[in-house]
Each structure stands twice: as C-alpha cells, then as structure tokens.
Amino acid sequence: MAVRHRLIMTSPWTVWSVLADGHRYADWVVGTSQSRPLRGEWPQVGATIAYEVRVGPMSLNNETVVRRCDEGTALELEARAGALGTARIAIELRPWGEHCLVIVDEHPLRGAGGALHNVAVETLIQIRHRAMLARLAKVCEAEAGADGDPGERAPGPASGSGARHA
User: Fold this and answer.
1) How many Å apart are CA 148 and CA 136, to the nearest integer?
2) Which of 107, 34, 95, 42 is nearest to 69 (CA)?
3) CB–CB of 70/57 below 8 Å?
4) Average pLDDT along the chain, 166 residues, taken 10 residues at a time
5) Residue 10, pLDDT score
6) Which pLDDT value is given to residue 35?
7) What is the pLDDT at residue 41?
8) 129: Cβ–Cβ under 8 A, 6 or more apart, which residues?
9) C or N terminus of the chain, fewer CB within 10 Å?
10) Assign residue 113 a region: left if phi > 0, alpha if psi is -120 to 50, beta otherwise?
11) What is the per-residue pLDDT for 158?
C-alpha cells in the first residue's frame, strides 16, 4: 500500500477547495489532462469526473468516482483505468498548526493493477505521489497567496489552530 504525506503551507480548507473542484483535478494529478465533471456534483459520493491520460502519442480517457467524502477532511476516490483496472485513492487532510498535512493512500482494487502489484509498482506509485503532492502544494499555496487564504475563515473541524486535534 503506497502511503505518502506532505505538509502544505496553507489551511485544510484551502486544500479542500482545490480537491473539491472537479475542473482542477488535472492541475494536481500527475499524468492527467482536461478534467471535467461527468456525472453528479463533485465531490459528492457517486460523482464522476472524466479526464485524459497521455502516454506518448496515445491518449486514454479515464474516469474517477467519489466513494467517500467527508467535507474538509477526507476524499476517497476510485480511479478507473480501463484494462489496467481500478485503484482506491484516499486523501486525508489534517490540520497541522496553521497548515495542512495531506496523507495519500493508494492501492489497486481490481484488474491487472491488482494482479501485478509488487514492490516495483509500489515504488512507481510512491514517485508519482511525491510529484502529485508537490503539484497539489504548489496549486494550493498559490491560491492561498492570491486570495489571502480564504480557508482560514471557513467554519468546521479543519479550521482554526488545530489545538483540539490529536
């Protein structure tokens, strides 16, 4: 199971605002382009976004569906990659002082990805996660800088100093 984390220097609500925008999926997910909501209202459970993955001259059209959504704290997705199968991607947001600790946990569910899952594949997923979290941090921190981090004003469990969280 590939688990990776990164401290993003903005509030959890600013990070959530990026995750909750289906049009911005391609901004932070490595290998994707042209994301757009397909069914439902992202990120509600059952909502789907479509996106393109380019591999050299080829392009593949894939979908990701929301399986769990706890506003401001957790988003679990099932990425469908055609013949490669599906993968579960869980993203957790934790307040860390004034910032946000983002934890990504991914593992294959079905198809060839699950059957061929091994240490080498796990290493590739870790490398992809490092790049993905770097992109997410860049997008979120730029948004916070441009908007004065509006997420700091948002009510809910992820706002404030995080003093009540263990």
Assistant:
1) 17
2) 42
3) no
4) 90 96 89 85 95 78 94 95 84 97 91 70 79 94 72 40 33
5) 96
6) 83
7) 95
8) 2, 4, 104, 106
9) C
10) alpha
11) 37
pLDDT at 28: 92
Strand partners, 107: 88
Whether the full predicted model's pTM is greater than 0.85, yes or no, is no
CA dihedral 126, 10, 19, 22 (to 10 degrees): -120
Q: How many Å apart are CA 124 and CA 121, to the nearest integer?
A: 5
Paired tokens of 1: 């199971």
What are the CB-based long-range contacts (under 8 Å, 24+) for 23-31? 24/139, 25/49, 25/51, 25/64, 26/51, 27/135, 27/139, 28/132, 28/135, 28/136, 28/139, 29/132, 29/135, 30/128, 30/131, 30/132, 30/135, 31/128
